[in-house]
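Take just one protein record:
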Amino acid sequence: MKSSCKHLALLWIALIGHYSFAQSASLNGKVTDNGEPLPLANVILKGTDMGTATDIDGMFEMTDIQPGDYVVLVTSLGYQPYQSKISLGAGANKTINIQLEPSAQSLDETVVTGTLKPVSRLESPVPVEVYSPTFLKKNPTASVFDALQNVNGVRPQINCNVCNTGDIHINGLEGPYTLVLIDGMPIVSGLGTVYGLTGIPNSLIEQIEIVKGPASSLYGSEAVGGLINIITKNAISAPEFFADGFATGWGEYNLDVGSKISVSDKTNLLLGLNYFNYDIPVDKNGDDFTDLTLQDRISIFQKWDFERKDNRLFSLAGRFFYEDRWGGEMQWTPEYRGGDEIYGESIYTRRWELLGKYQLPFEEKFLLSFSYNDHNQNSVYGDTEYLADQRIGFAQLTWDKTAGNHDLLFGSAVRYNYYNDNTPATTEADNIWIPSVFAQDEYTFAPKHSFLAGLRYDYDQRHGNILTPRAAYKWKISDNDIFRVNAGTGFRVVNLFTEDHAALTGSRDVVIAEELKPERSVNVNINYLKKIYSDNGTFIGLDASAFYTRFSNVILPDYETNPNQIIYDNLDGKSVSQGVSANLDIAFPSSFKIMVGATWQDVSSTENGVTQQQILTESITATWNLSYTFHALKLTADYTGNLYGSMRLPLLGDLDPRSEYSPTWSIQNIQFTYKGLNNFEVYGGVKNLLDWTPNRGNPFIIARANDPFDRDVMFDSNGNAVATPNNPYALTFDPSYVYGPNQGIRGFFGLRYTVF
């Protein structure tokens, strides 16, 4: 009897245990950042000791959870904490997908641009600003050129009212002073200065790194005012497929499509395509010229990543770019191309690029980098042809070595430049080899102090030996306070027609006063970074800088000496760019985020004792982004904008009735993004909310738009236009009076789809 009772008791206990186990719940899901898996994120049930971490694919799973109501808390360094209430019934197996939002305190990104080697952003002796794909999505654009309009101290400048070509200004310096790199390779230069920032699929960008101030000691010519490094995604970690397309109320259509293809166990291919089209002539300011250039553009990008022993790097990438753009009189059609009946500016651009990196199979860190690009441009500006070919080759070998407290970098590079065009300024094709060597040492002489010294030597057969030294000091006051000082010199060899298309548009004659010498600069930059963490979870980040750059031999276009000419000459004096800049980031626990930046700058030139503000250079700028996520609705609102102070503008003479200075103006945008659909994001909003365009307050923007070939212009014996009843202001045709986009308010709608 006792034995039977014992067996019944054991059976009862077993049944209870089995029943209890069967009634426990489980929780699983995936944690992502903008659709990309986020490994090593912490997932816990608040108030319990249950928790786990996501795997390399962003996946997590927890089992044996007692039924009940819980709060899921997900945290990861550099991201805002995520909380959500869930109810788990008996036997439930619940799946949730969680997307984390980057926080303003994500200051520990790995950066490579400042020192040519991967380091933590906090540890870099050179201040580097980092912008992620999340930043680009807050104001969707069809090109990186347009996307940079909301970066403090960086301004996309449109240089022509007709063809709408432009370049990037950093701290008030003209576009040719900014070096643009793709994956660290200087392939966007010369002709690419104008066109190289369009057609890079935004969906393929991993991050954008910006250095303000000279970097010629590492990157050579062109890195005088600063540099922008566009880093593309690694094929191994990219999504399997992604597509992002949007359209605007003006009839613009943009599509990014990409896919990761596993070629073999150790070879992955990332393939991307960007297509942009705008083909509806619009003339809202009534001058009979297109307000926005019509464009048909395609760019194909592919990147191969190879897995090697000991994680050594090997990647190859290539891009093909083709664009057909035109602007001009509303009646213009291609059959008028190059003629003098109806004015149009038509540009056919074909460009291909190749770049790669290969880490040599040695114990020491030797990295071989190389690139090559071929750019062909067939353009007409009215009846003036500009036919140009450019080829740039680049190879560089670096040795990264640590020895005690010294972090050393040695390198050697060679650059090949070929350039030819049909302008009178190019009597024979450039065919130049420029060899270089450089060295850099970052010495940590105390636990919180380090000093960097660098020197580069270039030999240019046109200008001889060029030395560019560099120095930097970093004081890590605490983990939340960093002070940096950078100083250095820069140089730039100029090719006018690849950089300044104002020289070809309109009716002005181009005059080159003498053989142009290389420009040189001396720069000092002071930077302070402060992070504040409050007890309630609010984060505040402050990044402030003061900068001073002095140029000698600077080359500036002179629009004022003779209104019928653009005169290029080395400045007999000095040019100075100085100012202060600050970025403030605030992230609240409520998912409200504020990013505000402002810059005051004074960019002037002094010659013969007369100092003038540089043309088309603003004295103040501001940018902002206000973002809030309604988690219950899975909806994010972004309000972005910029503001620019007064600029001095190029007038055609004393009778020109247009304003000599621009007003303070602002472009503002709002966007809503819905993330409640699996693998999808739906977004839409309004661009240029204030409907601002430069024609406000001006009688006209393009001078003599009614007579683009100057048929009814009378000239005196010196070649100057004179006032007549048909030309009361003594003007000639000129579209260079431009300081902002002519495109007014417009709505937009888009859809993103991502599969991992």
Summary: Residues 8-22 have pLDDT under 50 and may be disordered. The chain has six helices and 43 strands.
